[in-house]
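#struct-queue
[09:14] JT: dropping the first one here, sequence first, then the structure tokens:
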Amino acid sequence: NSAIDCLIEVNGQFVSKTPTTRSGSGTQFLIIAFGSSEVRRIRVFGIGRWRWIYTVPGHRVWAPSSDDVIRCVITGDSYTNGTGPSSINLTWANVFGVMMGWRDTRACGIGGTGYLAPGSAPAWKCRDHISDVIGPAPDVVVFAHGINDASYGTSLITAEALLCYQTVRAALPRTVILVLGPWPAATGPSASVQGVDDAISAAVTQFGDPLCKYISTAKDPSGSWLYGTGRTGATNGTGNADLYIGGVSGTDTVHPNDAGSLYLARRAAEGCRNALMQIAA
């Protein structure tokens, strides 16, 4: 369309970890040139809709087989929709999909939402747009809500989260459901965030589904994924939030920067792999 912001991968390797950008009015073209003729797998990560693919005479392009593709849908909040990093392609959810090897990973994040938090009007709490999760018939669903629910009672969070998992299970009886705890941000993590972590964990326990596992973020046995109350623009030596929170400008007290997004993607991938091994055991 009128602008391009994407990452390009060739045969499993990124051409650059800095997003390629084009801006301006009208149709934008992205040229990928090679010095030799051979079969290559090219992946383009971007939020925009692609209109055409053109090759020079004597060459052609085709879609790879999708027989072994694992489809994953992630439902979440502003962390999932890409607030913080310098590019939408660097959001934790997109990087997580690459780390897991799931080339059909779809990030369905709406800022300000949660299991109960509706965000801006209209009210779009998680269950209100659960069709985003169910519609693509994914093999794996990842829930990444909770940070915006801290002002609600823990029993209410548990009840609503349980309804979300049950709704997905009723529609997708064989889908794996992986549930992440709330993002701790630069809260310490606070007692309220830890309370939300406990509330979501309780919902998974009540669900009692063998294809559903909980991955704690604020109360991970090895320690909270994010800890400390600083950020890149105002470090205070209390934890890794000094490195990972601050957004592009360093003034954001909630969202990750590029390094933080990559870090959270790695932690989420490690946690989800361990959960999958438990399910398969």
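[09:21] JT: and here's the second one, same format:
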Amino acid sequence: RFGLFLGVVFFACWSGFMFVLALTLQGGAGYTPGQSGDAFVTLGAAYFVASLFSARLVALLGKVATLILGCAIQMTGLVGLMLTLKWVWPQPGVLNLLPATVLIGIGQAFIVSCFFRIGLSDVPAEQAGAGSSMLSTIQQTAFGLGSALLGTVFAQSLRHFASYLDGALAALIAELGLMLLLTVCAVAYQQRQRRLVLAASPCPG
């Protein structure tokens, strides 16, 4: 159940983030679609590199601790992105966005690697195909939900403030709130798993 919750919240945030930032860069900063895509290159590169090390990190820290670390890194990147946009607006450049988007990409890689590990951890081997299909369905559904959810926050803020920057900041704040909720739930899940392990361990003597 926690894996499903994780998938809904995180992938909704992911798709909403990509949607809102693309609209902000094109509509507010005057980027072409190609330039807007270039702004995500460093995020994708950071995601790719971090994903190569995610298995080792999970083996070292555990899947839930890695998830919490990923959330912390991503949220730091989101705060950095908001500060960067306020600082350089209305002329953000790829180099300006690089530090924040690298952090976001690293955090996303750790979170995604834990999503499948947590979601399938209690699924019997004979039902692994059905379990992975369910997780993929949740992932695709959340992608559509996120664009609608954060897109609505962005559109309403844009309408109210008449500023693409304010619209983007409102959507990023909403995403930050959702990621904070996910982090709190991950900590609670980690504590519950520890209690279950202690309860299942034999008593000494």
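[09:30] RK: nice, looked through the second one.
[09:31] RK: Residues 116 and 142 are 15 Å apart (CA to CA).
[09:31] JT: good to know. The radius of gyration is 19 Å.
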